[in-house]
Known about the structure:
Layout: E1 13-15, H1 17-23, E2 26-31, H2 41-54, E3 63-67, H3 71-82, E4 86-92, H4 97-105, E5 109-113, H5 124-135, E6 138-139, H6 146-163, E7 170-174, H7 179-191, E8 196-201, H8 207-213, H9 234-237, E9 243-246, H10 249-262, H11 269-284, E10 291-296, H12 304-307, H13 310-315
Parallel strand pairs: 2-10, 3-4, 3-6, 4-5, 7-8, 7-10, 8-9
Antiparallel strand pairs: 1-2
Helix pairs in contact: 2-3, 2-6, 6-7, 10-11
Amino acid sequence: MTTLWDCVGDTPLLRLGSLSKRTGCELFGKAEFMNPGGSIKDRAAKGMIRDAEARGLLGPGGTIVEGTAGNTGIGLALLGIERGYRVVVTMPDNQAREKYDYLEAMGVDVRRVPVVPFANPGHFYHQARALSEQHGWFWANQFENPANGDFHYQTTGAELWAQTGGRVDVLVSSVGTGGTLGGVSRYLKEKNPALEVVLLDPPGSGLYSYVTSGKVEGSGGSITEGIGIMRLTENFKRARVDSALRVTDQEMIEMLYHLARSDALLVGTSAALNVRGAYEVARRYQGSGKRIVTFLCDHGSRYTSKVLNPEFLASKALTVRPLP
């Protein structure tokens, strides 16, 4: 007998055939949409719940509260409800409708808040912390909680090393909390110090600037959800990064549709951004046979009201066109 808890992790590593053929490199995507909650954030959720239980911060009848763009909330809800916890999430009010519907169907207490800068106390992160303080609930605090990155170190990194037979040349990833990149880059760099780690950043996020100039700066915005930050989180501080690449929304959309039509993979926005970054890195190493790995964070069905909606794309001046 298996529980949802037991189903987190051990996801397949998929070869991205069309892009590997185009570039003469070997491109792979870790199929994190095959976790039970449909995203890579199930790992963070499991790691944080497991750690909280072990430390006595979460017990029978407890409540979990978290500020989230959606996927971590879904992971916490899925695993938390299975283990008997109540789940409350604060979410910015501009996320894909499908995420709110998913959470509310599971009975999660979803509290939508306006989109404001991080310094504003109304930010979804601060709202979750305030609820925790008011009610004595367990605040998962995915951005600063090291159990997030540690779980990726223990599972995601180890799985990638085993699945590639220890042959990884480049790791490419965007950053939401920093947990995935923080944990996986540490694990793989310990195994292979020559590994190249490339951070991917959407417009409006400050990490590209941080890696290239030492300053957390950014302007503009992006339709990608759950990635891009304007501060150095505890999870990100432990990441081992060599370089950074900016990926625009237009570049992301081109890749999202390319993967759907050429590789039968309909992925979410952060996954499409990850793969676009991996593709651009592969073009630099054209014909070299380098092995480049990234993460397919979630499935595109979670964003149909946006990225598969021609009116939405037109409103953002985005067009579906072939990859260069």
